[in-house]
């Protein structure tokens, strides 16, 4: 089967971009969601892709060469992705496959010890689920494989499913990361169980500020635990996450801390204590460009009110997990907030997702987690 694209899409694909949008397709057959198609511009073959007319991103490139998608094809791709991760030595948990960034669009595989947690977020990859699971069993011999449903499946016309696909998966697992340990619920936690992408950033940020730490949107408490300050305050709205923070503080022998179950915005209205390290790591405020304006306003409030609580010489870590709020946006927001607070901020580190969540230059969207560490001077 063939689909035909317009010149604009062709120019992008020449630069090895991996998505084709609905309005860039000039002709396509009626076919099942996730069908494998050859992409043509006029009479020229361009790539092979998964095609799904239900999705705004209607075609996702799987190869720039004509190829037959069989078990051998997927095995080679998966082996290559696993080999890339051999550089990571300081943990028992990491992402093995990161969708388009490993040229496997719609496939996420996270390894927690002998457990694998997988997500199939595109119809194309979902069609090959059986083969993918066979390969993962052959290559990794896991204790169990659990499929974590992602709401993005609905955009592909797929049901959101949570299920054990093979063996048995630990309900609770202890992640060992550098010299820290974290409980995680593989079936109930956010993402596929834990924010593995922040591993490197937790270590970097944790080296700054050791008197009083404020960990906002704390999730499992990773940043505050790494900082190991004389006093740590965690603020998190989720009851499940708050219980995880409590367990993780005990597991890491953190003594002097307070966990506050609250909305961070409301918490900042009344907080008066001063801190020498503040971390702002919110969920994605802007998953789409249309939500950007509201996200910028929310970020401004968070930074201005955090600066009111930051000691001179103290450190402020900002993280955006949305491609719509960039590193430059964070710097612009920090600068305008510093002007309001009549203070100066120095850039200490630029931060991004760890290397098991690759950032491909030809896929700008694969840089989804950006951050900056600042010092108040």
TrEMBL record:
GO terms for molecular function: methyltransferase activity; RNA binding. Keywords: Cytoplasm, Methyltransferase, RNA-binding, rRNA processing, S-adenosyl-L-methionine, Transferase. GO terms for biological process: methylation; rRNA processing. GO terms for cellular component: cytoplasm. It is found in: Cytoplasm. InterPro entries: PUA (IPR002478), PUA-like_sf (IPR015947), PUA_sf (IPR036974), RlmI-like_PUA (IPR041532), SAM-dep_methyl-trfase (IPR019614), SAM-dependent_MTases_sf (IPR029063). Residues 1-83 form the PUA domain. Belongs to the methyltransferase superfamily. RlmI family. This is 23S rRNA (Cytosine1962-C5)-methyltransferase. It comes from Caminibacter pacificus.
